[in-house]
C-alpha cells in the first residue's frame, strides 16, 4: 500500500512537470528525469506501426536491468473513453513484440504521464525455451492516439522501474518526440 | 501570330492548371463538384449531421433511405432538428428518395448522446416483416445501433413515425452489423465486456424481432474471456451469404493487421456456443492475412464471376472473388495507404490477392486537401443492376469512385464524384508544432446503391447525402439504358 502511494506520488509529480512543460523541478527532486536510461537500437522487425525508440537501464534507479520500448500509435485509441481497461493494455502495449505468450500477474493500475491518462499492468513473459521474465505494459492516450511502452527485464514490474519509465516518458528526451508525433492524424 | 496564340494558349493552360491545383488543395464553398461519368441527381443536407451508413429500402411503392449518424461534433454536439425545433443527439435520418431528384426528409430519430464515435446510431439495416420467418407481415423493421451501448429494432412501416420494438442492451462498442432478412439471423458487431477486445460478433436470431434470441458469441481464439497472450486483431464487420451460400466473410483490422476469415455459416450457427478456443476454431474454413499496414473494413463477396480472359480454360473460368476494402482513419495521409483489394477465393483454403485499386493521390493532391484520404467502404447491395459489373467505393476526400470489376484481376476506375463543400462541411485538423491546423474537405464515408441504379453517398464531415447516377461509358459498363 505504501509503495503504491509512493508510485502515485512520483507519477503525479511527473504529471505536474509535464503539464507545465517544465520537467526540471521533477528532475531535481528525483535526479535527472531520464537518468540511467541509455538509448539502444529498436530491436524488432517492422510491423503495423513505425518503429519507436528503445532504452535500457541497468541501475538501481530503474529497479535493476530493464529495457523499455516506446512508440505512439496514432488513431488507435477510443477517442471518447481513452484507455479504459486492462484488456486495452493487453491488446495495444506491444507485449507481443517480446513474447506472444504473456500472462498478467494482477489487475492494472491507473497512470498519468505528462497529462496523458491510461493504465499500466504487470505480466510474466514466457518463452519457448521455458524461460520467463517480468514485464510491464503501459498505455496512455491523448485524444484518439495512444502512447505505449512495453518493458522487460528482471527489474521490470517493480515500482522503481514503473516510476522510472514514467519519468523517462515525461523527460525532455522523449516527450518532445512524442508530442511532435501525436495528433498528426 | 501563331507563336503568340501558342503562348497565350500555354498561359491559359498554365493558369488553368494552377487554378485546378489550388482548387484541389483548398476546396471552397461555391466550387462545382468534381466529377467524371457520375452525375448529381439530388441531395439532402441530413440536418448537417455526420453520416456513417446509408441503407436504401424499396418499401411498398416508395424508396426510403435510412442513414446512420455518428455522434455530434465538439462544436455542435446536438444539432437542431428543423422539423421539431429541438436540439437532438445525432441518430438516424429517414429520407424518402422515391423521387431521387427531390429527397424528402421524413424523420430524425435521435441516438445516444455523445460526440463522434461516442454517440449517435451509426449502423442501420432494414428487413420487411413479410420476409422474416416470424415477423409481423405488415411491419418493416429497422435494426440500428444505439451509440456504443445497444442495438435497437424499430418498426418503420410508417417511416415518418417509427415505433420502438425492442432493445438489445448491455453491449459496448456496437458497430457494423449484418442481418439476413430471409432467416432473421443477425451478426451484431459489438463488445461483450467479458471478452478481451472492443468488438466481436454476437450472433442473434432476430426472426421474431420482438423476441431476440442470442445464439452465441464469436471471435478469434485468443479474444475470448480468460485467454492470455496475444490478442488477435478485432473485428470490423461481416457479410453473410445466408443459407444458400453458407458462408460468412469476416473482416478484421479496419486499417491495421488486416485479416479475412471465411466461416461455415451452418457450423457457426449450430456449433457448440461456449467460447472455447476449439469451439471458436470449429466453423473456420480459412484465413487470409493481409499486410499489417492494411485492414479489412468491408468484405464483399462476388461469387461465380465469369472471367472473360479465362473463358476457354478447361478449369477455373468462373472465380469466387472477395473485394476487401480497407478504412483510412488518419487525416492527411499520416498512415499507410488504405485501398481496395481483390482476392480469388475459388479455392477457399488458399485465398490469394490478385489485384488492387487506389485513387491516384496526385490526381487531386489528396494528401494536402485535408481530412482522410483512402478507402472506407463499398456498396453492399447485390441488386443485378451493378452486381459483378460495377463497384462503388467511398474514398473520403476523393469522393466516390466507380470501378469496372467485370475482370477483377484488373479493376479499372470508370467514374468519380467529389461533392462540393457547403457551409455545413466540418473541418478536419492535424497537430503541427503543437497547434491544430484545420482544413475543410469532403469526407465521403459510405456508399450504397438501390435496385434502380441510383448511388447514395454520405459525408462524415456533415455535408449530407448526395444521390448520384452513372453517365456515359460508366453507365454502359453497368448495362444501364
Describe this structure in words.
The complex is a heterodimer of chains A (185) and B (481). Chain A is α+β, with helices and mostly antiparallel strands and 185 residues long. Chain A contains 6 helices and 8 strands; from the N terminus they run ααβββααβββββαα. The longest helix of chain A has 18 residues, at 2-19. Chain A is globular. The termini of chain A are far apart. In chain B, the strands form 9 sheets. In chain B, strands 1-29-28-27-26 form a 5-stranded antiparallel sheet, covered by helices on one side. In chain B, strands 3, 4, 7, 8 and 9 form a 5-stranded antiparallel sheet that branches. Helix content of chain B is 10%, strand content 41%. Chains A and B meet through α3 and β4 of A and loops of B.
Task: Give the key terms.
A: 185 residues; alpha+beta; eight-stranded antiparallel beta sheet; globular; disordered N terminus; B: 481 residues; five-stranded antiparallel beta sheet; 6 helices; 34 strands; 10% helix; 41% strand
Amino acid at each position: 500500500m505504501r509503495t503504491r502511494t509512493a508510485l502515485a506520488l512520483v507519477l503525479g509529480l511527473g504529471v505536474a512537470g509535464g503539464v507545465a512543460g517544465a520537467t526540471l523541478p521533477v528532475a531535481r527532486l528525483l535526479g535527472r528525469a531520464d537518468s540511467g536510461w541509455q538509448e539502444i537500437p529498436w530491436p524488432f522487425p517492422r510491423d503495423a506501426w513505425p518503429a519507436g525508440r528503445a532504452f535500457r537501464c541497468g541501475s538501481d534507479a530503474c529497479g535493476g536491468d530493464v529495457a523499455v520500448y516506446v512508440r505512439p500509435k496514432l488513431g488507435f485509441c477510443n477517442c471518447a473513453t481513452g484507455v479504459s481497461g486492462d484488456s486495452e493494455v493487453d491488446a495495444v502495449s506491444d507485449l507481443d513484440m517480446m513474447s506472444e505468450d504473456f500472462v498478467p500477474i494482477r489487475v492494472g493500475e491507473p497512470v498519468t504521464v505528462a497529462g496523458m491518462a491510461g493504465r499500466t499492468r504487470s505480466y510474466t513473459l514466457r518463452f519457448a525455451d521455458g524461460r520467463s521474465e517480468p514485464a510491464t505494459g503501459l498505455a496512455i492516450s491523448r485524444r484518439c492516439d495512444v502512447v505505449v511502452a512495453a518493458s522487460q527485464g528482471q527489474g521490470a514490474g517493480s515500482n522503481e522501474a514503473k516510476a522510472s519509465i514514467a519519468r523517462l516518458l515525461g523527460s525532455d528526451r522523449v516527450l518532445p518526440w512524442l508530442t511532435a508525433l501525436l495528433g498528426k492524424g | 501570330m501563331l507563336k503568340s496564340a501558342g503562348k497565350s494558349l500555354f498561359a491559359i493552360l498554365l493558369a488553368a492548371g494552377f487554378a485546378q491545383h489550388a482548387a484541389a488543395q483548398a476546396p471552397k464553398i461555391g466550387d462545382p463538384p468534381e466529377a467524371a461519368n457520375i452525375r448529381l441527381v439530388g441531395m439532402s443536407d441530413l440536418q448537417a449531421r455526420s453520416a456513417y451508413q446509408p441503407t436504401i429500402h424499396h418499401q411498398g411503392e416508395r424508396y426510403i433511405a435510412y442513414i446512420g449518424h455518428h455522434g455530434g461534433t465538439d462544436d455542435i454536439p446536438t444539432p437542431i432538428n428543423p422539423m421539431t425545433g429541438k436540439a437532438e443527439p445525432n441518430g438516424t435520418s429517414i429520407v424518402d428518395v422515391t423521387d431521387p431528384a427531390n429527397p424528402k426528409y421524413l424523420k430524425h430519430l435521435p441516438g445516444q448522446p455523445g460526440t463522434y464515435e461516442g454517440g449517435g446510431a451509426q449502423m442501420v439495416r432494414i428487413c420487411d416483416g413479410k420476409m422474416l420467418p416470424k415477423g409481423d407481415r405488415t411491419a418493416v423493421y429497422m435494426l440500428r445501433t444505439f451509440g456504443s451501448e445497444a442495438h435497437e429494432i424499430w418498426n418503420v412501416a410508417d417511416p415518418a413515425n417509427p415505433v420502438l420494438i425492442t432493445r438489445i442492451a448491455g453491449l459496448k462498442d456496437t458497430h457494423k452489423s449484418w442481418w439476413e432478412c430471409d432467416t432473421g439471423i443477425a451478426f451484431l458487431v459489438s463488445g461483450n465486456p467479458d471478452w478481451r477486445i472492443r468488438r466481436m460478433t454476437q450472433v442473434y436470431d432476430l426472426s421474431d424481432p420482438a423476441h431476440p434470441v442470442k445464439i452465441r458469441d464469436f471471435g478469434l481464439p485468443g479474444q475470448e474471456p480468460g485467454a492470455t497472450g496475444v490478442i488477435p486483431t478485432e473485428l470490423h464487420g461481416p457479410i453473410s451469404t445466408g443459407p444458400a451460400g453458407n458462408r460468412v466473410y469476416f473482416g478484421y483490422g479496419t486499417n491495421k493487421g488486416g485479416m479475412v476469415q471465411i466461416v461455415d455459416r451452418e457450423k457457426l450457427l449450430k456449433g457448440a456456443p461456449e467460447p472455447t478456443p476449439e469451439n471458436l476454431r470449429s466453423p473456420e474454413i480459412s484465413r487470409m492475412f493481409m499486410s499489417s499496414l492494411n485492414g479489412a473494413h468491408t468484405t464483399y463477396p462476388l461469387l461465380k464471376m465469369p472471367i472473360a480472359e479465362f473463358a476457354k480454360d478447361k478449369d477455373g473460368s468462373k472465380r469466387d472473388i472477395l473485394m476487401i476494402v480497407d478504412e483510412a482513419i488518419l487525416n492527411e495521409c499520416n498512415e499507410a495507404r488504405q485501398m481496395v483489394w481483390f482476392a480469388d477465393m475459388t479455392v477457399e483454403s488458399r485465398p490469394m490477392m490478385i489485384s488492387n485499386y487506389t485513387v491516384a493521390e496526385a490526381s487531386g493532391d489528396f494528401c494536402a486537401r485535408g481530412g482522410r484520404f483512402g478507402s472506407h467502404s463499398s456498396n453492399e447491395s447485390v441488386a443485378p443492376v451493378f452486381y459483378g459489373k460495377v463497384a462503388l467505393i467511398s474514398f473520403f476526400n476523393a469522393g466516390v469512385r466507380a470501378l469496372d470489376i467485370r475482370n477483377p484481376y484488373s479493376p479499372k476506375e470508370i467514374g468519380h464524384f467529389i461533392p462540393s463543400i457547403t457551409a455545413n462541411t466540418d473541418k478536419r485538423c492535424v497537430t503541427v508544432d503543437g497547434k491544430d491546423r484545420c482544413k475543410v474537405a469532403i469526407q465521403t464515408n459510405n456508399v450504397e446503391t438501390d435496385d434502380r441504379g441510383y448511388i447514395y453517398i454520405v459525408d462524415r464531415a456533415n455535408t449530407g447525402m448526395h444521390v448520384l447516377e452513372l453517365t456515359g461509358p460508366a453507365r454502359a459498363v453497368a448495362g444501364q439504358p
